[in-house]
Amino acid sequence: MAKGTVFIDGESGTTGLGIRERLLAMPDVALKSIPSERRRDPAARRDLMAEVDLVVLCLPDDAAKDSSAMAASLGNAAPKVLDASTAHRVDPDWVYGFAEMAPDQAQRIAAAKNVANPGCYPTGGIGLIRPLVDAGIIPTDYPITINAVSGYSGGGKSMIADHDSTHGPAFELYGLKLEHKHVPEIQHYGGLSVRPIFVPSVGHYRQGMLVSIPLHLDTLNGKPSGADLRAVLAERYAGCKLVQVMDPQADGKLEPEALNDTDRLELYVHANDKYRQAILVARLDNLGKGASGAAVQNIGLMLGLGDA
């Protein structure tokens, strides 16, 4: 017997399909859908929202704002809402859906009416930065630079079509106007007072992500060692099921596809104490912990179906 009913508004997109596939394997969740010919009918969508416990928004930002307003208009019959777009990620009235971000974040998600699912790049960036800012090692005004690479599935339907049909470029930097939509949430939830420089890129492979942050250790508070940084991360994520702090790779290499089709997030500290330098690295599946996997984790918390 299902304990929660869910409507995915925008279930035909990459994230929506991933969420649907995961939820179909969960016996405690019943999925509700609108017939394809009525998906653009506001009355049909509103009626279904009134019937379910939770609505997942897998829509462009403007459409997500409209859909969340529609859900709120139901008053006492309004469902809980999980928004996978960027529309509400830094909205103070919405809880940020990175369950491991802070010790009480999973509880906040479980109690929330409205939750904003994190972006894929921010999940890696915030996962690395936030514990070190909280510990006072990274100053809040530190000039953070984040380099990241993702598989092309994170670029939406047009990019996926380009790579699937014409191969696409082997590697491509983008976001070089420094206006990437993920920067505000990285700064806000990373606890930074200075806007970070974020340099995203895409490779010709379907999924998998690396997020890396270079640091000069002597510019950090207390002039820590690489082991000190790793110890802070390990303490923050001790006992987490999905986030693990890993030992550095002996060969000094990391490839992005190792966690594909999982909901895990791995964090690494590669340091050279001789030169007083370190590189923090997060590895995840941009379609897993970076999108659909995080959404299903949040759905479970919001419906009272499990812990983080």
3D architecture notes:
The chain is an alpha/beta fold and 308 residues long. 32% of the residues lie in helices and 22% in strands. The protein has nine helices and 13 strands. The strands form two sheets. Strands 8-9-7-10-13-12-11 form a seven-stranded mixed β-sheet. A six-stranded parallel β-sheet has the order 2-1-3-4-6-5, sandwiched between helices. Strand 3 (54-57), helix 3 and strand 4 form a beta-alpha-beta unit. Helix 4 (105-111) packs across helix 9 (288-302). It is globular. The two termini are 22 Å apart.
Short description:
The chain has 308 residues and is of the alpha/beta class. The chain is 32% helix and 22% strand.
Largest sheet: 7 strands, mixed
What's the N-to-C terminus distance?
A: 22 Å
Please give the number of β-strands.
Answer: 13
Helix content: 25-40%
Structural class: alpha/beta
Shape: globular
Strand order of the largest sheet: 8-9-7-10-13-12-11
Write down the overall mean pLDDT. Answer: 94
List strands and helices in order, with pairings.
Layout: E1 4-9, H1 14-24, E2 29-32, H2 42-49, E3 54-57, H3 61-72, E4 80-83, E5 95-96, H4 105-111, E6 114-116, H5 120-134, E7 145-151, H6 156-166, E8 171-173, H7 183-190, E9 197-203, E10 209-216, H8 226-236, E11 243-245, E12 265-272, E13 277-284, H9 288-302
Parallel strand pairs: 1-2, 1-3, 3-4, 4-6, 5-6, 7-9, 11-12
Antiparallel strand pairs: 7-10, 8-9, 10-13, 12-13
